[in-house]
Each structure stands twice: as structure tokens, then as C-alpha cells.
Design a protein that fits this description.
By secondary structure, the protein is of the alpha/beta class. It folds into two domains: 200 residues, 3-Layer(aba) Sandwich (Rossmann fold); 140 residues, 3-Layer(aba) Sandwich (Rossmann fold). 43% of the residues lie in helices and 16% in strands. Helix 2 crosses helix 11, helix 3 runs parallel beside helix 4 and helix 8 runs parallel beside helix 9. The N and C termini lie far apart (70 Å).
Length: 373
């Protein structure tokens, strides 16, 4: 009897110690982005709390100095070891997220991926949840716009030579072919430092890349599956070589004032794919835009809206089911199945077969909707 009672007391002591440990460590959400404040995280922190279970959000400041996938793996490992961590929002792109995902899978930590588009992320782990449409959906959206709105059937594709750009390139080939169109020319964007290209005249590597595009048989549209600085520079050179040619930037191209200055006259022929834009109807989207402007002094880009939705969704999950990793994973998996879809500012969020919105925006003279999903 005394032995049984002793074991019972030992169990009670362990449970009490565990509970005490949990109280010492608040519920934590990792935010796999840096310290460029003010940012979306400041917008989230500035709003009123909606419950007593609001988590502490820890960003990636100081977690790694490594670049590329190794740095993302290091960051993920440090998040996984962080006391009280129950979920992570990140990482910044497809390559880094694909590298980091196995760390979260092994640690059984839900990972909400705001903007990475590689289709491989859909099946890499049951702990990974993509908010953005994948590269196959984006490619189909672009191909439909090319054929139905621009009414052309030939394209040139410039792409980043990584998981993001190559994925879009491959699916663009398929999607255009399925609509009776095709790629006349394609080339990887050089992994050279950006900054000198647009001022370097026609001897730069990127300008040479554009000049390789046949002038005697020009494509009906140029598609750039790359990042904002490269897209601005390439778009400018395309316009100089083949004026009036429509140019489409994929979702990683977010046209700010620097982009518009760099791209120059090509802006009036430039379109961008977006997951969201400030003019979307709805009170919640308008409220976010106002809050972001108030906190940061700038207009939000689609990436900011996706990050806001990811952080808000994690907070809602914790409020509804508590700070348990398994419970949060189940909550996310059940959205749109046994639970209603989460209504975010970027649209309904459910991690099943329901499509997520995409928009085609015209850059100039103002950023306006050219075509809905």
C-alpha cells in the first residue's frame, strides 16, 4: 500500500512539475522572418487581444547568419528547440521552406507557409500547411490570362533557377500547351548581384539574356518567374527591345515605387500575379490596409496580407484548441472538412482541394485589377 501510494505521489509530483514548467514557458509561435520593423508582426501586436490564450510571437532575429537553405535549416532547428513553441509561420520562399520542412516534421511542429508555392510542399509532411496557391495553379491562371485576355499563344519565360522559378517554368509549359499555346524562348535569370544591371547599359549579363530573345519572331507575352528587382530590370530591357510587348510578373514580383522607377515605360505594359491587393472588397481587408498604413507608414503588399492571415489563423487555432501541437495540427487539417474554413483577409482558408484566390493586376498608371480568378 505504501509502495502504491509512493508511486502515486511521484506521478502527481511529475505532473505538477510538468504543469509548472508549462506555466514558466508561455505558448510561443515562431515567425521565420527578420527584424525589418515596422512590419506585419507589429500590426498583429498592435491590435486588441481577442482572448486570454494569445501567444508570444518570436521572430527570427539573430537565429542564423547563414544564407540559403543551410541558414533556413539552422533557423528551423533553433525554433524547434525554443521553449514553449507550438507552431511556426514561414519560411520566405520555396527553396528555404522545402529545406526547413523536415525539421518541423521530425519535431511535430505545425508549419504555416504563407507565400511559398512549390507543389512539393503539399505532400512533404502532414505538419506543413500552404496558404498560397501552388505553382501549378498559378501557371494555369497565367496561361488562361495569356490566351483569353491577351489573346496570344506564344510566350517567352525568364525564371529563377531554383525551386520557385523552375516549378513555375515547368507548369507554364504544361498549362500553355493545354490551351493551344507554347513557349518560344526560355532562359534562367543569372544569379548575379542586382543593382548594376539597369545602369550598366547593354553589356550586362541580363541585357544579353534579353537580347538572346529572337527579335524577328517575338513572343506575344514575356513571363518573368523571378523576384522584384530582377523583374523590373528585365522588364525594362524587354520593352527597349520589343516595345508594346505585354509582360507578366509572377507572385514574387511586388511593384513598389522603386520597381516603377526602374521598369520605366514598361510599367504600362506590365502585369503581376497577386494573392491579394488593397482594393479587394470587404471590411476586414480594408481594416487591415488602414492598420498596416498606420503602423508602418506604407501600403501593404500581398505578402504582408498572407503573413497577417497566417499569424491570425495560428492565434485563432490556439484560442480555440489550446497550445498543443497535435491539437493545432488537427485544427488546421479540419478546416473546410469538419470545421468551417477560416475567413481571412485573403479569402477563405482551408487546406484541402478548395482553390485559393489569384488576381492579375495591371501595374500602371495605377495598380488595378486586370482579371479576377
Amino acid at each position: 500500500m505504501e509502495l502504491v501510494l509512493g508511486r502515486l505521489l511521484a506521478v502527481v509530483a511529475v505532473v505538477a512539475g510538468t504543469a509548472s514548467c508549462e506555466r514558466r514557458h508561455p505558448v510561443v509561435v515562431g515567425y521565420a522572418f527578420g527584424d525589418d520593423h515596422p512590419n506585419v508582426l507589429d500590426v498583429v501586436r498592435a491590435r486588441e487581444s481577442t482572448g486570454s490564450r494569445r501567444p508570444e510571437i518570436v521572430d527570427a532575429t539573430g537565429m542564423t547568419i547563414e544564407q540559403g537553405p543551410p541558414g533556413q535549416v539552422t533557423m528551423a532547428s533553433r525554433f524547434a528547440a525554443y521553449p514553449g513553441l507550438v507552431a511556426v509561420v514561414g519560411h520566405g520562399d520555396s527553396r528555404g521552406t522545402l529545406a526547413a520542412a523536415p525539421v518541423y516534421d521530425e519535431a511535430r511542429i505545425p508549419l504555416l507557409v504563407p507565400t511559398a508555392t512549390s507543389r512539393r510542399l503539399r505532400t512533404i509532411s502532414p505538419w506543413v500547411f500552404m496558404l498560397a496557391p501552388d505553382d501549378s495553379a498559378e501557371a494555369a491562371f497565367i496561361a488562361t490570362f495569356v490566351v483569353q485576355t491577351l489573346r496570344t499563344r506564344t510566350a517567352a519565360v525568364f525564371y529563377d533557377n531554383d525551386e520557385y522559378g523552375v516549378g513555375l517554368r515547368d507548369f507554364l509549359r504544361t498549362a500553355l500547351a493545354a490551351r493551344g499555346a507554347g513557349v518560344l524562348f526560355e532562359a534562367p535569370i543569372a544569379e548575379a548581384p542586382i543593382g548594376s544591371f539597369c545602369d550598366a547599359g547593354h553589356q550586362s549579363a541580363e541585357a544579353s539574356l534579353v537580347r538572346a530573345m529572337p527579335r524577328d519572331r517575338p513572343p506575344g507575352v514575356v513571363i518573368i518567374a523571378g523576384r522584384t528587382p530582377q523583374a523590373a530590370c528585365i522588364g525594362r530591357r524587354v520593352h527597349e527591345r520589343i516595345a508594346q510587348t505585354p509582360i507578366i510578373g509572377t507572385d514574387a514580383v511586388e511593384p513598389d515605387s522603386a520597381f516603377v522607377r526602374t521598369v520605366g515605360a514598361a510599367a504600362s505594359h506590365f502585369y503581376v500575379v497577386a494573392f491579394w491587393y488593397p482594393g479587394i472588397p470587404g471590411d476586414s481587408s480594408a481594416a487591415f490596409t488602414r492598420a498596416y498604413e498606420r503602423v508602418t507608414g506604407a501600403m501593404p503588399h500581398p505578402t504582408h496580407a498572407m503573413l497577417f492571415d497566417a499569424l491570425s489563423l495560428v492565434e485563432t487555432a490556439i484560442r480555440d484548441v489550446g497550445g498543443n501541437r497535435d491539437a493545432i495540427r488537427r485544427y488546421l487539417a479540419e478546416l473546410g472538412v469538419t470545421r468551417p474554413a477560416y475567413q481571412g483577409i485573403t479569402g477563405a482558408i482551408a487546406f484541402g482541394s478548395a482553390p485559393r484566390p489569384l488576381y492579375m493586376l495591371r501595374v500602371a498608371p495605377f495598380l488595378t485589377l486586370a482579371s479576377p480568378q
